[in-house]
Every structure is written in C-alpha cells, then in structure tokens.
Amino acid sequence: MDFGIYFTLGLEHITDINGFDHMLFIAALMAPFAIKDYKQILILVTAFTVGHSLTLALASLKIIPFNPTVIELLIPVTIFITGIYNLIRKESATNSKTISYLIALIFGLIHGMGFSNFFQSLLGKESSIVKPLFAFNLGVEAGQILFVFILLSIQFLLLRILKFKFSWWKNALSTLAVVVSAFLFTQQIIS
Fold first, then answer.
1. Sign of the Cα pseudo-torsion (89, 27, 75, 94, in order)
2. CA-to-CA distance for 63 and 60, rounded, in angstroms?
3. Could you give phi then psi for residue 165, rounded to 5 degrees?
4. In terms of CB atoms within 10 Å, which of 7, 100, 109, 148 comes out highest?
C-alpha cells in the first residue's frame, strides 16, 4: 500500500464514529483550554500522538507484549481519570499544564497499544512498517486536529455567541467524559 492509503486509514480511524472513545479522550484533554490556548491544545494533541505512535510501533513489531483485553479496559480508565483531573484541577496551579501534557503522553502510550491490533491487520505482508506507520500516524494527527477544530468551533459558538461561561464548557465536557467512560468501562467488564 502507498502513503496516501495509510494516511487515509489513519484519518478514517479517528473520524469513525465507532471509535468515539478516542475522540472522547481528545475532548477531555482539551476541555480545560480555551480557544486562545490553541498552541497548548496542539501540544497536547501532539504529545498524545507521540505516545501512541511509540507504543503502536513497538506493539506492531511485537517488541512489547500486552493483553488486548486489559488495554480495552484501560482506555476508558484514561478518559475517566482525565475528566476527573479536569474537574478537580486548580487553574492557578503552576504545574497544571505540565500535568496535562504528561497525561496526554502517558495515556497516549495505552491508546497506542489499543490501535496496534487494527494497524497490524492493515500491514499484511509489508516488509517495513516505517512508511506505513508514519503515514498512518499523520492521518491520525490530521483527524485529531480536525476534531479539535470542530470542538473549538462549538466552544466559540457557546461561549462567544450564546454567552455561556467557560467553566460551564470545561465542566460539561469533563463530566460527559467521566460518565461515558464509566459506561464504556462497565460494558467492557460485563462483556
């Protein structure tokens, strides 16, 4: 397969509504940030991409073993923790942005392992994973940035036009992440 195909598959993997847990995590990550913080949001999304790219590569090469069932349980836990952190964090804390970056990077490692089974099935008989991995991750990053743009547009509509308070936005998005991730976790346990 060529670069464009893997790029498109990465983009579609993120924008597919069936993979909404990834979008929910991105939403939870960026909930405490306003439009004016777009640079920090891009750093968050990129930190997440770096984390999941690393484990995606290592897991695809079978360098790190993992249990897919455990990873599927941990993904909603990462969303839950991120949402809870948003609800309890103090905006005035000097290290709150650093903690958000670390959350994005570390939890990205877990999400990358979740991607690896899908990615391995795409590889088939490829002799090298470098080009497919790079193209796939660029597609994932493009999908994430598109989603961020959509969320920031909604934020603009609610805050600037409808005059909602930023704290409402942050708390509503974070609470949604907590509730949905708890539901996803419960579904994983039951099934």
1. negative
2. 8
3. -85, 150
4. 100
CA angle 28, 45, 83 (to 5 degrees): 15
Model pTM? 0.92
The CA–CA distances, whole Å, from 88 to 24, 91, 121, 167, 179 equal 18, 9, 40, 12, 15
pLDDT less than 50: residues of the chain: none
Question: Cα separation of 125 and 142, whole Å?
Answer: 26
| Ranges of each domain in the chain | 3-190
Nearest residue to 60 (alpha-carbon basis) of 6, 5, 12:
6
Alpha-carbon span 151 to 144, nearest angstrom: 10
Inter-axis angle of helices 130-156 and 96-123, nearest 10: 130
DSSP string, 119-174: HHHHHTT-S-SHHHHHHHHHHHHHHHHHHHHHHHHHHHIIIIIS---HHHHHHHHH
Phi, psi of 90 (to 5 degrees): -100, 120
- Number of alpha helices (DSSP H) and beta strands (DSSP E) in the chain: 7, 0
pLDDT at 93: 63
For the stretch 47-58, pLDDT in tens is 999 999 999 989
